[in-house]
Amino acid sequence: MDKLKQKLHKPGMTQEALERRFSLMRTSLAIAIGILLSIVIILIVSDDPLLAIKYLLIGPLLSLNNFYSLFTMWIPIVITGLAVCIMFSANQFNLFAEGGFFFGAVVAAAVALSVDLPAGIHPVVCILAAAVVCGLLGAIPALMRHKLGASEMVASLLLNYACLQLGLFIISYFFRDPNAGSVVSRKYPDSAKLLELIPRSNIHVGIIVAIVLVVLTYYFMYYTRWGYEIRLVGENEKFAKYSGISIGAVTIGSQVLGSALAGGAGAIETLALYSRFSYTDLTGHGWDGVTLAILAGRNPKYIPLAALFLAYLRKGADLMSMRAGMQTDFVSVIQAVILVFLLAEQFLSGYRQKKTYALSKQLEAAQEEMGG
Fold first, then answer.
1. In this predicted model, what pLDDT tens digit does every residue of 251-308 receive, in sequence order?
2. Could you tell me the sign of the dihedral formed by the alpha carbons of 299, 209, 128, 171, in that order?
3. CA of 355: how far to CAs of 225, 232, 344, 362, 363, in Å?
4. pTM of the model
5. CB atoms within 10 A of CB 281
6. For residues 50 and 352, what is the distance between their CA atoms, to the nearest angstrom?
7. Which of 78, 101, 109, 171 could make a disulfide contact with 210, Cβ separation 3.0–4.6 Å?
8. How many other C-beta atoms are found inside a 10 Å radius of the C-beta of residue 95?
């Protein structure tokens, strides 16, 4: 019997191990196809394709400032990735992370310019205010889904643009700098700005916040009753309901929590990197969060690595644009290709079936051997 257990628990001899290996292969192949497609496009349209490819693939490693920029880009998308992970884990395709990030920056700017507080406390109050307001707003699509049966995806998309217009109205009519030549707010007081950790690097204290949030979110999702309920509702809502779990409370609570993280991310970004509120449109950070959540398989512990990959691509594309004259849209191409392949259920499904069949045969053979 001990020998049988050893055979059945060999690496690769369990369905769980097979699923992990398949998921890694599927993700790696989707990324490789996206990058390869971008390289082919560069070879076709670029006047200096080798230079463009060089800066896209290794540009972020060519100088210390470029390397610092990776982590500056990494901070906000890690937090929005965590936000979307929580939302998607409850099987809610809520896209409010995009509007939440923008409106979180609006709320942070409003509090920074309206309240006089000591340095250190001021930015914390701004970030918490942004998280609370955006958390409450994020409950709207969840409530519409739970009470009215409306699509949370459509409701959240509409809410994104409502927050965009409301945010621009607030900045334009209450906090606009009349001496500026564009629609921007007055400058933030020094007490509201986040501390820069490395001088002249733009790497700020938000990186510590992001790391702490990764740990806390992973612990919350996998080691607490609330996190277990969110994942159970996402995997099998009917079973969760018959188990006594309040579907409405879990659905709404997960969307509030995810939206609060997105709002906090927007507040951190504007207070750390900008001297005033200057956004004129939605920033795209929420869509990056969607990409990260899918890449990471909705598991918070994989979000930092997925975010580093995306930040690396963005920085490489920026350098390619500056040095080789190519557009930065290649990152969007890569993201789109990756998402298409990851969301296509038939992608590598034949390979998966063959491996599952082979695994079942191995298990049968091991049982027969021990039985004989």
1. 999 999 999 999 999 999 999 999 999 999 999 899 899 989 988 888 999 999 989 9
2. negative
3. 34, 27, 19, 10, 12
4. 0.86
5. 8
6. 37
7. 78
8. 23
